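step=encode ok
step=design start
structure_in=
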């Protein structure tokens, strides 16, 4: 019998007089949980979650603390209530209220003027992932701008472009990062799980992924974490934690591969059958002699064997630990490697992911139950697609980490246009893109900027027109699991009427489209649009889905990605040019610099991320806060208690600088400085400091950030694959100057 979708109502009854409405957070938060609004007299008074008990077969979708903070957010006194027009200097945050008609007339007029005077590429779309639901997402603005003639777009993913790139060049262009991992129910089939820069107990990476790791660990799966920090995952569910220097992960993975190969522990049959470029006998035609991965590992070309002793001074990990972990990964089968995104957000982040996938191939782990590809996403496409946009007729693209630079230099810097206008909805890139101070300077050159948001964020403060948008509670939508983790969908039923004068992003753009004479922006109402999006998917009863709230989709036949490619490679080749797992990438060999951002070798290769700078001897990393989703929620006083802003520093580094736990420090480099309390802890590696990203840039009168906004320190540099390099960042710390 064909498995059917099951529709569930994951909510308990409310108190008398309360209606309970099921939804989920629309934010780019790492999870997708049941978040129930208790509505009384048209107002959300309380949040609850899926009340059922945990079972591995049918786990409840239990909300995190941010989900429970949703009532604080929607009812926040600082919500934007009316359209605003800037009256003071750009960035000063001084505005006057205007009517919707005045605001939209001005936006339309400026769009027309700037496109006609400078071309469509002079408009930069800075919309992002503040809402990632099926209907209400950044495509609202993309659709408008692309229908209008196009724009300059920021193309690369700020979180995981390195993973996206490495997957495409290893497993083929059809490999989707959301569906190249495995179902969490498979974790228990591993004998060893290495969680590399992956801490679901901190950042959430799929609702229930921490519970599944814990469940697997309780059933005897050995769990090892590799991270510059001893994370909550390390503390709560790991047998071993290996601290590592940021940006050096590829060196350790390469050294592990060297141990396995030099000791003959590789799965040679798998390599011969499934991969390209492991050894000299399996190089593609035209590849130079000595260019195989095995030759690189053993140092046959450059004379440097990539041994644990070679890697130890680079990574800070003892050679014996690297050797032991390598032997364990090769012999304790099946073993899985789960990679997070953070090690890829480094100067050569693509090498981390490529080296991780190579390790999985060398041990024959790919496509096998209990094994993994090295990707941490889910295993199967759920078929429900987000609303998209037509192609960008201006064909003008810039890698996202270069936002500050394209604003500053435009055509003179080799970019497609001089940027005259910014359009930003569902995003806060002034705060979330690297090098905040350079972005601010670039924004001074704009002729016009429009922002939709819920609050006067660091980005909205720079706008000429600010438009108040609805939150997900005020509209209907659908959401699928974050990064493919699980097989279900949640109907986000509208819980309350739009508050104040707020409007949906889609309707704001539809109104602008009408003013601009553009046809076809919006044909039907939101519910009908959602019904159309679900047609032909596993949602076989839209009305039941809408009414009950949760659709449990049939489980995938194969819980591990690439199972059929590995089982039957003749009928199901990988989508690479060779049809194999390309340890040697034929497309990179043919075109080593695909984006003009730097050359990328065809095999995984260690490339040092930076030269030492004696002025800034500490490495900064900027992981996630449990109290925020990037910059979303940062203005919530109650929620912020769940995870305080601070900078982690090792006791030896703190002692050398006269810094005590809890005291205010100044973290600085050549790009900026911020003031933040120190947390002195041996949970962070020596020489490394950590500030949770997303705190709102809040300058004092001198422009100094006062709240720990990490991106005043990070570099607007792209990795060769277009990824951000947030975690390649050198800083120094000193006690904060006291009051004068
Ligand atoms: S993980 Fe995401 S969807 Fe789940 S409750 Fe937290 S913020 Fe909401």
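sequence_out=
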């Amino acid at each position: 019998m064909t498995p059917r979708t099951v529709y569930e109502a994951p909510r308990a009854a409310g108190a008398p007089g309360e209606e309970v409405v099921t939804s989920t957070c629309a934010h780019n938060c790492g999870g997708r949980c049941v978040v129930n609004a208790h509505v009384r007299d048209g107002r959300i008074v309380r949040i609850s979650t899926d009340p059922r008990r945990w079972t591995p077969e049918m786990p409840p979708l239990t909300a995190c603390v941010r989900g429970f903070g949703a009532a604080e957010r929607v009812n926040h006194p600082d919500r934007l209530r009316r359209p605003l027009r800037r009256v003071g200097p750009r960035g000063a945050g001084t505005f006057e209220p205007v009517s919707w008609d005045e605001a939209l007339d001005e936006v339309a007029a400026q769009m027309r003027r700037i496109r006609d005077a400078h071309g469509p590429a002079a408009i930069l779309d800075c919309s992002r992932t503040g809402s990632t639901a099926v209907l209400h997402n950044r495509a609202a603005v993309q659709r408008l701008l692309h229908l209008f003639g196009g724009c300059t777009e920021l193309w690369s993913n700020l979180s995981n472009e390195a993973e996206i790139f490495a997957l495409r060049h290893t497993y083929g262009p059809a490999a989707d990062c959301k569906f190249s991992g495995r179902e969490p129910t498979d974790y228990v089939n591993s004998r060893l799980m290495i969680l590399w820069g992956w801490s679901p107990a901190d950042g959430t990476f799929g609702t229930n992924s921490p519970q599944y790791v814990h469940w697997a660990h309780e059933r005897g799966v050995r769990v090892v974490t590799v991270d510059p920090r001893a994370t909550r995952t390390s503390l709560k569910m790991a047998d071993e934690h290996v601290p590592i220097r940021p940006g050096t992960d590829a060196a350790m993975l390469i050294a592990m591969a060297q141990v396995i190969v030099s000791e003959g522990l590789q799965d040679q049959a798998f390599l011969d059958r499934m991969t390209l470029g492991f050894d000299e006998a399996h190089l593609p035609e035209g590849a130079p002699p000595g260019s195989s991965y095995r030759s690189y590992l053993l140092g046959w070309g450059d004379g440097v064997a990539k041994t644990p002793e070679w890697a130890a001074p680079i990574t800070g990990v003892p050679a014996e630990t690297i050797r032991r972990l390598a032997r364990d990964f090769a012999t304790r089968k099946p073993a899985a490697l789960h990679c997070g995104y953070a090690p890829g957000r480094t100067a050569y982040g693509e090498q981390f992911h490529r080296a991780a996938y190579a390790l999985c191939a060398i041990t024959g782990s790919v496509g096998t139950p209990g094994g993994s590809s090295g990707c941490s996403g889910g295993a199967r496409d759920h078929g429900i697609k987000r609303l998209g946009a037509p192609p960008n007729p201006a064909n003008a693209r810039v890698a996202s980490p270069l936002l500050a630079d394209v604003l500053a230099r435009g055509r003179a810097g080799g970019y497609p246009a001089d940027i005259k206008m910014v359009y930003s909805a569902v995003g806060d890139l002034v705060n979330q893109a690297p090098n905040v101070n350079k972005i601010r300077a670039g924004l001074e050159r704009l002729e016009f900027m429009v922002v939709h948001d819920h609050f006067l964020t660091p980005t909205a403060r720079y706008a000429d027109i600010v438009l108040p948008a609805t939150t997900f509670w005020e509209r209907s939508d659908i959401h699928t699991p974050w990064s493919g983790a699980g097989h279900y969908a949640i109907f986000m039923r509208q819980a309350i009427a739009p508050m104040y004068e707020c409007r949906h992003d889609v309707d704001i753009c539809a109104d602008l489209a009408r003013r601009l004479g553009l046809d076809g922006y919006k044909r039907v109402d939101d519910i009908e649009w959602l019904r159309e999006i679900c047609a032909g998917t596993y949602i076989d009863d839209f009305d039941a889905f809408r009414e009950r709230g949760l659709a449990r989709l049939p489980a995938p036949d194969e819980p591990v990605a690439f199972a059929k490619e590995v089982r039957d490679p003749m009928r199901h080749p990988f989508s690479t040019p060779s049809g194999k797992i390309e340890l040697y990438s034929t497309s990179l060999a043919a075109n080593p610099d695909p984006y003009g951002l730097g050359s990328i070798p065809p095999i995984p290769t260690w490339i040092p991320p930076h030269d030492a700078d004696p002025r800034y001897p500490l490495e900064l990393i900027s992981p996630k806060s449990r109290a925020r989703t990037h910059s979303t929620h940062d203005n919530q006083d109650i929620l912020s208690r769940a995870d305080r802003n601070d900078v982690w520093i090792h006791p030896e580094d703190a002692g050398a600088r006269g810094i005590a736990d809890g005291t205010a420090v100044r973290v600085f480099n050549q790009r900026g400085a911020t003031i933040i309390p120190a947390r002195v802890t041996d949970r962070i590696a020596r020489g490394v400091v950590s500030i949770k990203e997303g705190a709102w840039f809040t300058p004092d009168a001198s422009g100094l950030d006062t709240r720990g906004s990490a991106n005043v320190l990070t570099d607007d540099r792209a990795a060769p694959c277009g990824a951000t390099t947030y975690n390649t960042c050198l800083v120094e710390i000193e006690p904060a100057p006291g009051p004068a």
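step=design ok
step=annotate ok -> The chain has three domains: 84-155+385-479+488-552, 161-380+560-590, 618-735.
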